[in-house]
Design goal:
This protein is mainly α and 91 residues long. The protein contains four helices and three strands, in the order H-H-H-E-E-H-E. 37% of the residues lie in helices and 7% in strands.
Length: 91
Amino acid sequence: MHHRITAVLVAGLIAATGTIVAVSPAEAAAKRYANCAALNKVYKHGVGLKGAKDKVRGKTKPVTTFTRNNAVYKANKSRDRDKDGIACEKR
């Protein structure tokens, strides 16, 4: 069933854009959350790209305990207010 969903998504992308785009099963299944409160229920300290570092101001320490998951981050990129590669980060 999972492969069928991925195939349908890829076929839709090809039909819509005329371009072949590779979509991994993890990216196809990544959930977009309605807001940071909903995301933080699942990912307590936020979710970010692998290799991302929290941008901080002043003497605050950066959050390092966020979950590293590229697919989930990309689905919720709009929740990354400071554009540091981590969405909904919190202590």
